[in-house]
Each structure stands twice: as structure tokens, then as C-alpha cells.
Amino acid sequence: MKKFLSVLLIVLVFGSCSEYQKALKTEDVAIKYNVAEKQYEKGKYTKAIRLFEMIAPAFRGKPQAEKMFYMFAQSYYKTEQFYLAGYQFESFVSSYPKSEKIEEASYLAAKSYSKLSPVYSLDQTDTNKAIGKLQAFIDTYPNSEYLPEANATLKVLTDKLEKKAFEIAKQYNTIQDYKSAIVALDNFIADYPGTIFREDALFYKFDSTYQLAVNSVPSKMQERLNNAKIAYTNLMKVNLSAARKEKADEMLAQIDKNLQQYSNIN
């Protein structure tokens, strides 16, 4: 019995392979479609894709085209070919606006683009594109079953842009370009008023105004020291860590010491 089952398994495997190879070589679109659908249902998406790619140009307008293009897009998605998946799902949405799969396809198109979003330190063109696609989906389907996941993904992407914007602003402080740091950090705080990096941004702004002031030419020092005191006041409006509070107070003491000379002159 074991020997019989082994032989039967071998026959089935080779029969399946033979069927797939024949489908690749035949000019019969119907055969290619049937075999592609079988491969898709078995989870053999790469093989299904190869056949779908061959029949797609000739399949538009056929009764089974809607199902075929849905499986085609899903196969790209399942194999993590997200550029192609996004394109195919969007094509499906535009081609079959009355499909019962339209909401799912719209979501998976947006999700495909979100999968292309790189780490925050890299170019964020794909992140911005994904945000636009997800927001469009949310606006179009406000009651969708996919809404919680779409909102969660959207937050991850917007947080990534926020972190990148903060790191760029902070970098000016790191390279000691304090004038640019002050402008960039001010812009960041204005653009992201509820940011989780608010304490960091205010601290680095204070540090930048402090460094610019204490290393200033005499003619501009008094004005810059006063600007630094304003930055300190704004910093104290957030709940600082103990270490940062101690450092900021030390810097304020130096500011007040430097300002004392102007009081004596007056």
C-alpha cells in the first residue's frame, strides 16, 4: 500500500508539472486560464503570475476577465511584488467599478504602496504616495471594515514623516549651523504642533539660541542672549526630564551672567 501511494503521488506531481508546462506552451487562452486558476488556488502564485502575464493582454472584455485580473493582482501581492500589485489593483478598480471586490481592491492598492515605504532616513516619495492613497480610501469608504487597519497604517506613515522632519531640523544643531537650526526647529514645531518630539525640538532650539548667543560678536550678543532666555521660557512649558532641566538651568545661569555686563553698562 505504501509503495502504491508513493507511485500515485509521483504520478500526480509529474502530471501536475506536465499540465503546467503544457499550459505555458499552448496558444489556447482558456487552457492557460484554467491552469493559472488552479495554481492560484494551490497558493503557487509565481506560477500563476507567469500564466496571467501571458493571457492578460488578450483577456480584457472576456466574461472571466474580472476574476482573472483580481487573482492576478492578488498573486503579485502574495509574492510581495508591491509595485506591480498596487498597479494591478488600481487598474482593477478603474476597469471594474461595479465589482463586489472594489472596496477590497481599493484598500489593497493603498496597502501595497504603504509596503513600499522605506525607513525614515531615506527618500519618502513612496511614503507620501501611500499616505495619499490611504487617505483617498478612507474618504471614499468611511465605514469600511478595513478602516481601523487603514488608519493605523496611515499613522505609522505620518509618524515616519514627522520623525524625518525632526531629524533634518535637529541635524542643523548637530553640525553647529545654529541659525538654520533655529529656523528649521521653529518650522517643525509649527508644522507638527502635537508632535511627540516637542520636548526634543524645544530643547535643541534653546541649545541653538544659547550657542549662537554665547559665541556671538559683541554687537549682537545682548539681543541673542535675550532670545535665548525666551527659548528657555518656552522650553519650561513642557515636562522636561531631570537631566535636561539641570542642563538647561546651567545654560540659563550662563546667559544671565553674560547679560549682567550689559546691566552694569546701563
Can you walk me through this structure?
With 266 residues, this protein is mostly helical. Helices cover 79% and strands 0% of the residues. The protein is built from 12 helices and no strands. It has helices at residues 2-25, 29-41, 45-59, 65-78, 82-95, 102-114, 125-140, 147-174, 178-191, 198-214, 218-235, 242-265. Helix 7 runs antiparallel to helix 8 (147-174) and helix 8 (147-174) runs parallel beside helix 10. The longest helix is centred in the middle third of the chain and has 28 residues, at 147-174. The chain is rod-shaped, with a radius of gyration of 30 Å. It starts with a helix and ends with a helix. The model is unreliable at 3-15 (pLDDT under 50).
Unreliable stretches (pLDDT < 50, length at least 5) are 3-15
Number of helices: 12
Shape: rod-shaped
Give Rg in angstroms.
30 Å
The percent range for strand residues is: under 5%
- State the order of secondary-structure elements, H for helix, E for strand: HHHHHHHHHHHH
From the N-terminal CA to the C-terminal CA, the straight-line distance is 108 Å
What is the number of beta strands? 0
User: Biggest β-sheet, characterized?
Assistant: none
